[in-house]
Amino acid sequence: MNVHVKRGVLSEEGTEAVLLTHFEGDTCPTGACARLDAKSGGLIAALISQGDVSGRLNEIRVLYPGTDVPAKRFVVVGLGKRADVSLERIRGAFSRAAQHIRSLRVTAFSTAVDFGTVDLPLAQTAEAVVEGAILGLYRFVRFKTTDLTEEPEVRAITIVEERPAAVKTLRTAASTAVIVSGAVVLARDLVSAPANEMTPKQLARAAVQCSRGRKIACTVIEEEALRKLGMHALLGVAAGSDEAPRFIILEYRGGRRTAPVIALVGKGITFDSGGISIKSADKLDQMKSDMAGGAAVIAAVRAAADLALPVNIVGLVPAVENLPSGKAYKPGDILTSLSGQTIEVVTTDAEGRLIMADALTYAGRYRPAAIIDLATLTGACIVALGDHVSGMFGSDDELKRAIREAADFTGERVWELPLWEEYDELIRGDAADFKNSGGRAGGAVTAAVFLSKFTAGYPWVHLDIAGPAWSTKERPYSPKGASGVGVRLLLQFLRTRGTPSPVR
Known about the structure:
By secondary structure, the chain is an alpha/beta fold. It has helices spanning 31-39, 43-50, 87-103, 122-136, 164-192, 200-211, 223-229, 232-238, 292-306, 352-363, 379-385, 397-410, 443-452, 487-497; strands at residues 2-7, 18-24, 60-63, 74-81, 108-111, 156-161, 216-221, 246-253, 261-266, 268-272, 312-322, 334-336, 342-344, 370-375, 390-394, 414-416, 434-435, 460-464, 470-471, 481-482. The strands form 4 sheets. Strands 7, 8, 9, 10, 11, 14, 15, 16 and 18 form a 9-stranded mixed sheet that branches. A 6-stranded mixed sheet has the order 1-6-5-2-4-3, covered by helices on one side. A 3-stranded mixed sheet has the order 12-13-17.
């Protein structure tokens, strides 16, 4: 997607479509919409007065101005009530509008980031406009050869700005939004790829590709080296598959040499059958998405490098398949983790926390200022919070606050759940230090409590993204299927916080 920012007058743009906005309750056009209306002889104002353009949130109207302006179409999208305007509403509205423009077989359109008086910073508004449009236009069609839609792709968006002082701001914002949106698209592509294509080896190759030409060092640790390291929890999960495991390390050093590292850890189960404790057939095809946390980490590190963020980051992705076979680990087995702590396997379908245990322990080698992990960890989190919200757990109040603020800004909602000591008893092992499942009661909490035992006391937040990582229906700027959740949240956190708290 090419996004251009140019100094000019929107009413003079010779384009297939101009995208404009209108607020519900406004009796006349405002901002750029008002100037286009004046140029077209009051066409939009007349339709507003007749009630044909209401401004209701995400309402779309296509108008044909004739010969008064060089643009062939006005596409007017509603932003809802002016008092309720937000970055999230703007993302959603521009997503729906861009999709509608594509349905008109239009491959390029122009717009302006001028909605009249709104209490939002210009740069943030521009980023929301571009993110909404790019992410709303996303489609995963790599494997389609028949029944392809006849709608051509939108290839270019032009933002036109009359004010000279605002052009530079808009160019920077648009460039940032393209990078961030591109990272989300990468994560969606990785998660959407079928498990026969996206194996641990292929996920590692994708990470290596992301490092090329960037200030990123990528190391991939293979099976024998993992055994020497002592990552036996990870290796236990991988034992049932013919696909060998990989441990992916991405290091980006954008901060001072002496500045501490922020560790991002993402679960990378490229397919989860449940192992010996096999899952039911229902939705088993969606278990290719069990590496959504790992995909988010890879994409976020790539974008951090492209944005030249002044932070030091390490991204860690344990990548394995969880399959049943004669070699597979079994309920009742005891695994010795990288930390030296032992784990009694109650169910092989609680595999994510095992590979994350070794990855979190490895993160401690960097003496990180913070550890943030993302994992499609538990169905219990979906039961508790639904499929729009990630469960948040953590050991550090300041870090949790920063994550919550980033989530509120990006619209990737999180909700904190407790890590009270009373839950420890539920994961205490009978024949080992811990067991890998505390049972059905409080399943998301006991999984997080288990992970906490491997964070070595560093400031830590765990995000259970099981709900929003994969959607069964389309949402504004997020398609049915892989959402790329967590990428924008992580990047917003990294952009605004840098190093969140000192090493303890």
